[in-house]
């Protein structure tokens, strides 16, 4: 919790859980609160009321959210719940677990949250725009920010309930997205992380209707938006990173754009985050996933031929109901063929309301964990080989923070940074041994001297 407040203003405590899309929702709520004259408390005890933005995707997230609500009730007593878990069963799921919450709303419900707060803690005065900065209140470090371009999803993956929680795809107007990006860049943000449930489908819900930015007509398409964001960010030497991009054929246009900007210091990064989930055709059909493994491999080869420095990231599920050893072997074989740079995985966890819960062939928990370990070992070897190939290269990195390092009895400050291949919190780091004087948000050139399974080590040039 942030932003110390004056005693005369009502004070709101805020707990934000879940994915980057939920984080953006939290930022919108906080910005409105500040505009209305509320202050944000740093502790439960210092708050007049607490808002908990929840996640409800998998069982572990549900448990974390329920625990957070319980803690807020115990420490403060006045709690409003919002987010994905709040949408479950129309709010009754949360109320059954915690009947004393003041109000429950679903995700992307800024107006409803504000209305609930007004009911229990009236706003102090009429809003004044100058109470908040133009870019709004951010929960990320000052030098990077998430830019949410749409809400909801049109896919009906059998392991997922996101469409039930957040609805079908609704694309934000392209002019609004560009305006928000410009405000963030003007405020000093050095990296825009473009997020949604399905970034490649941006505009599909409105048939790629023409929007407007400063009077210019622009098609509501991800390639057009990416080109506009590149043009905005490149002169400022800021990065643009795309997340949650399914391998649709039109992603070829994005790779072509990345190729045209590859030599610049800023702009659209040669990085694609594709949530593939599995590589067994039988399981992908059961998951109702849109991509065929052989076509994905062909597309990856095409992209890497056109843009060798392209970084590919993905996530996978192991232990999906009905997964056999042959299915899992197909997944490991896919990893070897695809040679993805960054990979995450998690064992299948039943999600309340997901179709896959009723599928036969539940995989025992010990088998899930054993397969997860084999999966991560396979990918760790791939990652280590790919990172070793970067030793000796010079690259531009973005400093995230300084940290204390210890060599024997001697302590020193090092910089922890990220390259174009590394998204915050989910990918690797570049440790800069002599970077102790580089403030966070600095773009620096380093020469890579060593590599581990997931990280690089370098020195400032």
Structure notes:
- With 461 residues, the protein is of the alpha/beta class.
- It is 33% helix and 24% strand.
- It has 13 helices and 20 strands.
- The protein has helices at residues 20-35, 59-75, 84-87, 92-97, 110-120, 162-166, 174-186, 222-233, 251-261, 281-287, 293-306, 325-338, 365-388, and strands spanning 11-16, 39-40, 49-54, 79-83, 103-104, 144-148, 150-151, 170-171, 191-195, 210-213, 216-219, 239-242, 267-277, 311-318, 342-347, 394-407, 410-418, 430-432, 443-451, 456-460.
- The strands form 5 sheets. A 6-stranded parallel β-sheet has the order 6-9-12-13-14-15. A 5-stranded parallel β-sheet has the order 2-1-3-4-5, with helices on both faces. A 5-stranded mixed beta barrel has the order 16-17-18-20-19.
- Strand 3, helix 2 (59-75) and strand 4 (79-83) form a beta-alpha-beta unit.
- Helix 1 packs across helix 5, helix 7 (174-186) packs parallel to helix 8 and helix 8 (222-233) runs parallel beside helix 9 (251-261).
- It starts with 10 loop residues before the first strand and ends with a strand.
Structure described in brief:
With 461 residues, this protein is an alpha/beta fold. The protein has 13 helices and 20 strands. Helix 9 links the parallel strand 12 (239-242) and strand 13.
